[in-house]
């Protein structure tokens, strides 16, 4: 476990700043750990930092999240969209592949490839609105795109925005997804 306050501080700042931008927070955590030669930076630390981000999101949106009657359809879509991530994430963890993805070469190639993909997707003409076209098919497609965020160098928010743009949603709606 991390016992050094400096390591915790640096990784927490990186996570806090990078989580809500379309950049890979996991990649930045790994790169910073390599630069500063943190010996104990692991997948468990990454997950703990991401859970902290999740708690911050839940706290910030608590009024919307806990308005179950108004948001039941949204909760259903979130649950369906999370299924691919859980299943494939479990497989990657169980087989050990997830640990092999945590290296600088994978991060560099993933960042380059998905940077190009988000650029191309952003050129897509948006024709759909989230209110009328955000259905289960769209949710599952976005869910499968989010699986790619398990690769360090692929931003979860960036890949979600990319998926929304590929599906024809405008930038604002793609960000809301």
What does this structure look like?
- It is built from eleven helices and no strands.
- With 177 residues, the chain is mainly α.
- The protein has one domain (5-176).
- The longest helix has 28 residues, at 68-95.
- The protein is globular.
- The model has no long low-confidence stretch (mean pLDDT 84).
- The chain crosses the membrane at residues 6-31, 43-62, 74-94, 106-122, 134-155.
- Belongs to the UppP family.
- It is a multi-pass membrane protein.
List keywords for this structure.
mainly alpha; 11 helices; single chain; 177 residues; globular
Brief description of this entry?
With 177 residues, this protein is an all-alpha fold.
Indicate the topology:
Blueprint: H1 5-18, H2 25-35, H3 43-60, H4 62-65, H5 68-95, H6 97-100, H7 104-122, H8 130-133, H9 136-147, H10 156-166, H11 171-176
Main location: membrane
Subcellular location: Cell membrane
Membrane topology: Multi-pass membrane protein
Radius of gyration: 17 Å
Report the mean per-residue pLDDT as an integer.
Answer: 84
Q: Which residues sit in consecutive blocks of at least 5 with pLDDT less than 50?
A: none
Shape: globular
Number of helices: 11
How many strands?
0
The tally of domains stands at 1
Helix content: over 70%
Order of helices and strands: HHHHHHHHHHH
Outline the biggest β-sheet: none
Terminal Cα span: 34 Å
> How much β-strand is present in the residues?
under 5%
Secondary structural class: mainly alpha
């Amino acid at each position: 476990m991390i016992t050094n306050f400096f390591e915790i501080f640096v990784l927490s700042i990186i996570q806090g700043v990078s989580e809500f931008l379309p950049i890979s927070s996991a990649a930045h955590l790994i790169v910073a750990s390599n630069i500063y030669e943190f010996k104990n930076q692991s997948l468990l630390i990454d997950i703990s930092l991401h859970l902290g981000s999740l708690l911050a999101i839940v706290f910030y949106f608590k009024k919307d999240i806990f308005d179950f009657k108004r948001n039941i359809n949204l909760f259903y879509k979130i649950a369906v969209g999370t299924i691919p991530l859980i299943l494939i994430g479990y497989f990657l963890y169980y087989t050990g592949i997830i640990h092999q993805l945590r290296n600088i070469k994978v991060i560099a190639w993933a960042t380059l490839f998905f940077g190009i993909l988000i650029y191309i997707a952003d050129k897509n003409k948006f024709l759909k609105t989230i209110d009328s076209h955000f259905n289960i098919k769209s949710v599952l497609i976005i869910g499968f795109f989010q699986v790619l965020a398990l690769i360090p160098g692929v931003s979860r928010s960036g890949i979600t925005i990319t998926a929304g743009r590929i599906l024809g949603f405008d930038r604002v709606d793609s960000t809301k997804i």
